[in-house]
Design brief:
Elements lengths: L19 E5 L3 H7 L4 H21 L4 E8 L7 H24 L3 E5 L7 H13 L7 E8 L1 H17 L10 H5 L12 E4 L18 E4 L9 H13 L14
Parallel strand pairs: 1-2, 1-5, 2-4, 3-4, 5-6
Helix pairs in contact: 1-2, 2-3, 3-4
Length: 252
């Protein structure tokens, strides 16, 4: 049976399927180690899983897919692995730009890209510019990203506006703060998926996922496929999102 669009409203249980899904892609290194191979081999296989996740998102009409590709803490990894990851990132951008255009995907890289070499920065800006008018799936790649960094850079922007008299400090609300985050103007994150068996957030979208549903799976990222993605979606649909309220039909 063909699955209904993930944007379709379910009249029976009054629930929406997720519109914005964020994924912590964990387990590439362990996957490679289990096979007796170098960690970079796992990252290359993980790139295939990325394409699978994007394909699923398009088929199921998701609006936004945010992928945690490289955290601000990942610089602590061995130099060879970092160098290989940067090369893989550059290759992915250059080789997939045609597909991004073909499938109407708008690419946005969130994070402090100034740490990357000039060639990679140029490739990022080029891919973002080329896809800027696409109005299909929004694909966020979190690279050199950290939730604490995102909050701090937002605070700095707000302070600058206040000092210039552009923003009144008394008018700063949660919505105001959100407008200065790297995910400004995007729909809220409905569902966070983490692969690899770990059950933590790892400094990912700390502000944005305050009321997101969390789904953890033991599947290592290179083995992530549409079946696993569908399980996460089904788990989301089965939950009652209350946003701090009471359960429906619960006695007061």
């Amino acid at each position: 049976m063909e699955r209904k669009s993930s944007l379709e409203y379910n009249e029976k249980n009054h629930k929406y399927n997720p519109r914005h899904v964020a994924i912590i892609m964990d387990g590439n290194g362990r996957w490679a180690n289990k096979k007796g191979k170098m960690r970079i081999f796992g990252h290359k296989e993980g790139f295939k899983a990325v394409k699978e996740a994007i394909r699923f998102s398009i088929i199921n009409d998701l609006k936004i897919l945010t992928l945690y590709a490289f955290s601000s803490e990942n610089w602590n990894r061995p130099l060879f692995e970092i160098k290989s990851l940067m090369e893989l990132f550059y290759y992915a951008l250059e080789s997939e730009i045609k597909n991004l255009k073909k499938y109407n995907i708008r690419l946005k890289v969130i994070g402090d890209i100034t740490y990357f070499n000039k060639k990679l920065q140029k490739s990022i800006r080029n891919a973002e510019q080329i896809t800027s008018n696409n109005n299909g799936l929004i694909l966020n790649i979190a690279a050199n990203y950290g939730g604490r960094w995102d909050i701090i850079q937002s605070i700095k922007k707000i302070i600058c506006k206040v000092q210039k008299g552009i923003l009144n400090i008394n008018n700063i609300q949660e919505k105001t703060f959100s407008e200065y985050l790297s995910t400004s103007k995007l729909l809220p994150v409905d569902l966070v998926i983490r692969t690899g068996g770990e059950k933590r957030i790892s400094n990912f979208l700390l502000w944005q996922i305050a009321y997101s549903e969390l789904y953890f799976t033991d599947v290592l990222w290179p083995d992530f496929n549409h079946y696993v993605f569908q399980q996460a979606i089904d788990a989301f649909i089965s939950r009652e999102r209350r946003f701090g309220g009471c359960k429906k039909n619960e006695k007061q």
